Amino acid sequence: QVQLVESGGGLVQPGGSLRLSCVASGIIFRLYDMGWYRQAPGKQRELVARITIGDSTNYADSVKGRFTISRDNGKNTVYLQMNSLKPEDTAVYHCNAYYRFNRWGQGTQVTVSS
User: Fold this and answer.
1) Cα(36)–Cα(38) distance, rounded to whole angstroms?
2) Which of 39, 94, 104, 106 has the highest count of CB atoms within 10 angstroms of its CB?
3) Alpha carbon distance 38, 79 (integer Å)
4) SS3 of 87, please?
């Protein structure tokens, strides 16, 4: 059974940092492109960052220079390092795995507020 389990969310002040983790099970992790998406209340889910099986990355313009995605195939884990957080980064962050079709995690809440 495929599972993507996110962790690392929470409440942080503007300018702060968080590191999200997503541990995958039930898949051959190294075959999957991995990504982080987010969904704020009343808004559509949007891509935040993606990393391919060849370690190529791409980011939403709104997070470039502040967020970094990485993966550890030995640990079946993808990370999202988030720095210089802004209130507009507040959302539920979902892990995504793609190989032929999408798999999704349940999400972790990130709230940026003073």
Assistant:
1) 7
2) 94
3) 14
4) helix
The 8-class DSSP code of residue 65 comes to: T
Bridge partners of 5?
Answer: 23
Q: Is the pLDDT of residue 1 over 90?
A: no
Helix, strand, coil percentages (3-state) for the chain, rounded to 5, are: 5, 55, 40
User: Does residue 15 register a pLDDT over 90?
Assistant: yes
Cα separation, 54 vs 61, whole angstroms:
21
Please state, for a pLDDT cut of 90, what percent of the chain lies above it: 96
Q: Is 10 left (phi over 0), alpha (psi -120 to 50) or beta?
A: left
pLDDT above 90 (res 75): yes
Q: Which conformational region is residue 28 in: left (phi greater than 0), alpha (psi within -120 to 50 degrees), or beta?
A: beta
Q: What type of residue sits at position 63?
A: V
| Positive/negative CA dihedral, 94, 97, 98, 102 | negative
Residues 111, 69: Cα–Cα separation, whole Å:
19
